[in-house]
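Input record (one chain):
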Amino acid sequence: MRTYKLTAFEQTGKLIMEETFTAENDEEARKKGREILEEKELVKQTHRLASPAGKLLLFHS
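The corresponding structure, as predicted from the sequence alone:
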């Protein structure tokens, strides 16, 4: 399992949410990240999901 980091921000740059979770691979992490954002109603907020290697898997500004 690999650890991924999901963050969401307000337009001012203020951090709204920061969450880490584990997934088997990048595709599973993308799916989990989208589910978390939808659950917390943060899909339209600026957000990013980073892999352990620093690769951006989800990004919205």
